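ok trying this again, last paste got cut off
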Amino acid sequence: MAIVINGYEIEDAEVERELPLHQDAANPLKRAVTTLALRRILLDEAARLGLPAASEEAAIEALLAAEVQVPEPDEASCLRHYQQYPQRFTVGELVEVDHILFQITERVPLEALRELAEQSLQELLAEPARFAELARSLSNCPSGEVGGNLGQLSRGDTVPEFERVVFAMNPGEILPRLLETRFGLHIVRVARCIEGRVLPFERVQAHIGEALQAASRDAAWRQYLQLLVGRAKIEGITLEGADSPLVQ
């Protein structure tokens, strides 16, 4: 079935040109078609309002600037964000981490891998001094050659699911459970923690304000686009304006 937006039919050639821009999406074809449909809706609205523009991108920018007003966050809002997320404004915080990675692969049954990892963890909880020995013999990470040592890590150096755990641990502690990440199952030990310092609010207030305004702007754009989607005459596709790839 053809995809028609407000009487305009999206052609196959347009989809072919758009498709390469969305190869990282879970469904590149759907993403490309959705982008084209939403762009058409925005362009139609810009034309209806008589907004002059030198290009399609300029027309969309002019429309959003004219129709979506985003207030600047005040000092109280910035301060609340600062107090709620102090770790985001902490510098110099480090942890020295050792780990043993049991990598999940198609060749090894997950239950067997989990059983081996759990057994190894229990051995280490009983005999922590064997950590380097087991890391050398079992770990699927190159760090196994140096006893599992990952060195000093700061926030942002590792995947979020690993970071959240290790930065909450105490020096010398072995996590009493397996840590599962996108890479596999880990046995984790924190050797040392170096406390950071929280930057003064005055140093980061402007940055917080910019971030809060950007988040508000994106939310407002999605709401506006959802409103336009609701008004548009659409055939051949179901659109959710709030999921627009144009305003992320």
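PB: full thing came through this time. Residues 241-248 have pLDDT under 50 and may be disordered.
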